[in-house]
Amino acid sequence: MLQLPQLPYAYDALEPYVDAATMEIHYTRHHQAYTTNFNLAIARYPQLENRSVVELLSDLSSIPADVQATIRNNGGGYYNHTLFWEMMTPDSTLAPVGDLAQAIDREFGGFDAFKAEFSAAALTVFGSGWAWLAVDQDKKLHVVQTFQQDTVIMQNLQPVLGLDVWEHAYYLKYQNKRPDYIAAWWNVVNWNRAEELYQSALAGKKVAV
Ligand code: MN3
Questions:
Q1: Backbone phi, then psi, for 72, in 5-degree steps?
Q2: What is the pLDDT of residue 38?
């Protein structure tokens, strides 16, 4: 059974970049729905109940066919959103910190170059999906896209930073202006959390939720 995690700040904490109404609906309805639907699917197969969501998402072919898509979509939605809330903060440092800052300089040629690459990835997701900064098995950083609620786990990557570009994440405030949402989002990135996730990936750990 998954439980909706506590939101780490108030609904209006990320104003004006992420508005309170979007945050409340995103968390109490969308994230809640992924959680509920995942639990309903799991309840039909008691042998799945003891496996963590990360384990299940890492081994989708082991899941009974009739709930595989439901678990992929809703388990992925649960995982992605749990990380997403933590990846934002009202007290952003506005730039990477720690070893991640150095790695971004080294591997992307600087924060501005990284920002441009990540923003382009977020902008060009066609339809619903996410942009990610993620670490591969050789500890290299990559900017990647995922579609629907697929996770970077399926690309054998560990997440460091992710941006939800489903319309539900921005439409109330930004309507169709996804570029404005992306530009605003950089103001609320939790670089301390990204550094923690980077360190955990360097240590070879899988990100649990
Ligand atoms: Mn979302």
A1: -60, -50
A2: 98
Region of 174 please: left (phi>0), alpha (psi -120 to 50) or beta.
alpha
Q: How far is the CA of 168 from the centre of ligand 1 (A)?
A: 6
Q: How far is the CA of 114 from the centre of ligand 1 (A)?
A: 23
Residues of the chain with pLDDT under 50: none
Measured in Å, residue 102 CA sits from the centre of ligand 1 at 30
Residue 175 CB partners (closer than 8 Å, separation 6+):
none
What is the structure's pLDDT at 14? 98
What is the C-alpha to C-alpha distance for residues 36 and 1, in angstroms, rounded to an integer?
9
CB-count burial class (<10 Å; 0-12, 13-18, 19+) for 149: buried
C-alpha 109 – ligand 1 centre gap (Å): 30
The strand pairing partners of 164, in sequence order, are 130
Q: What spacing in Å lies between the alpha carbon of 164 and ligand 1's midpoint? A: 6
Measure 125 CA to ligand 1 centroid, in angstroms.
14
Torsion of CA 16, 189, 74, 39, to 10 degrees: -90
Distance (Å, rounded) from C-alpha 68 to C-alpha 78? 15
